[in-house]
Hints:
By secondary structure, the protein is α+β, with helices and mostly antiparallel strands. The protein contains three helices and eight strands.
Amino acid sequence: MALGKEVSATSSAVKIVACVALAIASLLVIGGFAYRTVPRRDFAPESKELAVPAGWLDLGSCAFTRSFDGKRLLTLSEDQSAELQEPQPEQKKEGNTRFRKGEWSYDEQSKRYAITMNDQTSKYSLLSQEGIETCILVNGNLETANLRESWFSTAEDPSDFDDRSDYSEGHEPH
């Protein structure tokens, strides 16, 4: 009789496992059907929030740049803002830095960048190589580059070592 109870318990366990497997299979079939037939809503943020400005993916390695003489710093941001840090003119207190805000844009057709500061726009070609973290924003085009007005990438974030106590034009530091 003990053998009969053992077989009965084993067959009950097999029946339970079979029922669970059947339930899981049913859920998978129903879920697959619902996935294919029920209209889906996109729960991701709107694409505008995820959009990266044209040209930024290439320009990102040139976000922090220095002038040819090393005295001016240009910071470009993904929000298409630009900030120029330069020494004050000689008639002002020495050692102070002047900060100017501007913006950058990219022309996909010409593959050139424009940086506007105080209503003056300069055009640049991006010189960079794949796999190398440095780049140059060449003033003009590559054939007739004006290196004195070009920008050379630097790994340093200028905000790590600047003094923003004399921020010009009433702008607040970011």
